[in-house]
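re: ur msg from earlier - yeah i can do the arginine complex, just paste it... oh wait u already did. ok heres what im feeding in:
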Amino acid sequence: MVLKEDTPSSTTPQQASTTSPTFKPTVASTMPTISASNEWSPLRSLLIGRASHSLFPSEPPHMTRATMPSAHRSQFRSLNPFPAHIVAKADEELDNFARVMTERFGIKVYRPREVDWAKTNMGTGGYTGAMPRDGLMVVGNTMVEACMGWGCRRDEVEDAYGGFLQMIMQEARERGESVRICRAPKIVGRDSVYDGLLDLPDGDPDEHVDVGVHGPNESSEMGWAINNTRPAFDCADFMRFGTTIIGQLSHVTNRKGVDYLRAVIPEPYTVELLNTTDDHAMHIDATILPLRQGTLIYCPTRVTEEELRRHEVFKNWDLRPLPWNPEEETDEEDDGPPRYMCSKWLVLNAMSVDEKRIVVEEKQERFARWLEQEFGMEVVRLPFRHVNSLGGSFHCATVDLVRGES
Ligand code: ARG
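and the outut:
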């Protein structure tokens, strides 16, 4: 199953290649192994995913209907690989992204090992190594592993990032740093998270069916595609804003998942839930995008300014809705591969290098120009449409390990 070793790349260009052998990265002694408390301070160390062997995730029909766009749902079958040319291009885009981060910005980049996803999960198959944001999150000096809701992702962190986690723990130990990795409790055997939900009528697989509608702040789990029988959450349903972590309930994040996260993060971090109105909610990083301390862009069809302001942390922030609806744009200028798993709000899934610089998909010219003109950002345009096709963009495909001044 393990095809390639974890390959940290250093700040020297020759070593940024993903096929370079494992070696000890030379790091400035001032840089911690993991340390991050927001989404915008200068990025200094980063994990970037790998696309090879990605499969369409296979979950029960009610989950696919709740979270995936209707057009391609028949593809979401067990062991069905994404088209090979898309995966190959996605890997090129990820490698290029890694190279740019290393060479142009001096960021230390780690890459996960290559995994044959068809052989994982005891032969039932996994999904991808291209979306590490969903499974891992750094909060202060603690790395938290998600308690994933999806069965096909149960072993994803161990399979793709297990070796990487051991390596950073080893690095931290050698340097005498106090670092904590909070691995998720392992479920062996039957999972209860879909109990009571599997008998929902199948309906027409091409029809867009809501499993249920959830109102703001309702504690009822009935509208969700998972129940609340055990902690479930994806890290991508949460974002750091200093000591306040803002998150959402979703089809992959339940109340017990939020309680679990609250219990494992270090003091003085706290978690607050944003009431989003996204019937297909799964991951908050296409709903809000902080650009820097004090400035946040949001999707106005999924969250209101009033709701954001309810949170103390956003009191004096400049909160800006994206002034157009990407769903209403035609695809004429964008002849890229299908976004099998995401809406066009993925435009907000950009990744900050620091408070001035941000990485945006190169076809999103309207968005890039808006960021430049309206906010004075320096936009780094990189190709990522094939990664988008697999389910996410720059924010999803990364885990920030160290953010902050040296
Ligand atoms: N569910 C979001 C949308 O369709 C996409 C979120 C992707 N994020 C991620 N971390 N994989 O707009």
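cool cool. Residues 84-103 form the longest helix (20 residues). ping me if u need the other ligands too
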